[in-house]
Amino acid sequence: MTPAARVQAAIEVLDLVIASTRSNGAPADRIVADWFKARRFAGSGDRRAVRELVFRAIRACGEIPADGRAAMLRLAREDATLAALFDGSRHGPAPIDADEAPAAAGVAPEWLCEALAGSGVPVGEATALLGRAPLDVRVNTLKAGLADLPPGGERTAAPHGWRYPHGTRIEDGAAYLAGAIEVQDTGSQLACLAVGAQPGESVVDLCAGGGGKTLALAADMDGRGRLLACDADRARLSRLVPRAERAGAAMIETRLLDANRETEQLADWCRMADAVLVDAPCSGTGTWRRNPEGRWRLNPAQLDRYAAIQARLLDVGARLVRPGGRLVFVTCSLLDAEGALQAQTFLERNTGWQADPIALAAGEPRGLGVRLSPFRDGTDGFFIARFRAL
Question: Residues 25, 50: one domain?
């Protein structure tokens, strides 16, 4: 592909991404991959170049663009070399008209910028949410020593965390294949440490998903005790079983739940758990570095729905904790509606609980918990709070 053809390809992919965000369809990563599956003529260099253009454009546009061309014109406005490729050549984009308007620049849609600012995240800090996420791994202490770590890593704030340069082929290495390391953001690792899971305890991961945090909890427990991983998504939860086998975490149990029936389906765990992790569904504002189009998918009504789900799941989790036990609330969000306010209202509607201070190697206090951010901590954005049953 010529450089101009790569630009036109990126415009076509962006059209698909924009349509998908409006219909709550497939994520940008999958759209890019599927687009190239149908175009086998494109080489690896073409794929990298087009993907880079697509995600640069997504990050550059605050509001959702009218179309892919408007998004690419936003980049061209600041890049004369790119603008010159709008040359009307075969397979390239048409020349830029003098009256063509590029998509608006910005961190996010205006309402969301206001919500972030109201949550103590000014524009300068919010900009870091659109940077490129690092590649972090966690050393799996259940299998540590089975394979050497890949070269080129640096320690992170997490005790078993390492950070590698972009492009490092972690999943092809011996350490990953042996289960000695797991790809996991340092923020996620620190969130697991807040649970304080110990060998021999009974622990519930209420919203386990694919099990990344479950595996970290299993390592903290040295593979001893009971660890129940729950989720309402069958496909995501099914991915945990082979991951647990590779990681040597044989003590993990899984349980598929039905939304709004969790308390009934977990009746055998009522007041039995030493610790419950509620890594609740959320807006994902703290993960825009990985999913930048996510800020186009969110709206105020969806944010309210997430907050209602979080409150319900916190109450479900609270019923599972024994007296003296711990309930840990985590969201990958920087919005107070999914963090500090959620933690405060939990205590207001639930007697017999108190906030439990958290000491982590990163983050700043926010309300009753701790907040991690890409700007200050170099991690994904998280809110973490811990409560103790009296």
Answer: yes
